[in-house]
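Please, structure for the following, as tokens.
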Amino acid sequence: MDFSYRHFETIDSTNVYLQKAQADEDIRGLVVSADEQTAGKGMGSNTWESKKGENLTFSLALDLSFLQAEQQFALSEAVPLAMLKTLDNILPSEKTHVKWPNDLLFETNKIAGILINSTITGSKMGISIIGIGLNVNQIQFKDWPTHPSSLRAITGKTFELMPLLHTMAQNIAGSIELMKEIASKQNDTSDWRLTFHEMHQQYLRRLFRYRTWADYEIEGNKRHLYMQGVDPFGRLHLNDAEGHNLFFDVKQVKFVL
């Protein structure tokens, strides 16, 4: 997969830029980055804090038409795994995790966020716009609940942003090509959940709190629960002390850190 790149000094949101551009041009394979986003998007109504010129803030558009709509959570597994492939050359892999559904943590500190906007046509996926914020060289952060950190804060090293962006984009492209290859070999009569089984297992191996007891906030109440994993539809699977299976969508459960 070949990417084309557009870089801006200042933009409202790279994600919004691609959404608007989609009406006028073929955005597949387009990567849009910026030194500064004035309205960077986070999950839900959240904004993404990033000091100008110190971090990676970018979005890329990918053609996911080879995926069934019901397989869309596979993309939320593939993208963080591709980012970890890049980060494993910088940070200790045993301390770097995916926080469900697709934030990246170093220990308990957030270093990256991923926002995915996908279109669906009939039973198939369409174009997915993936917004990524990676804390690279910024040291000072506001005291957000996510306890942000950065590559520089962790390693003491300063990183060049554009080479890091290109490496990460290519690793994401590699993951998408692998997904396409796997999907093309899928037996139409097989259970679709088995198609990306190995990738799902890799995701679970890097999943923060996987198969451990921890505290979560649910409907304003703190509960001590065991993480069984993530179901095929991307819901977080937890158990209580009595062994009841509990499933949660994004925003229905909060990690207590």
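Residues 91 and 154 are 8 Å apart (CA to CA). The chain has two domains: 4-204, 209-255.
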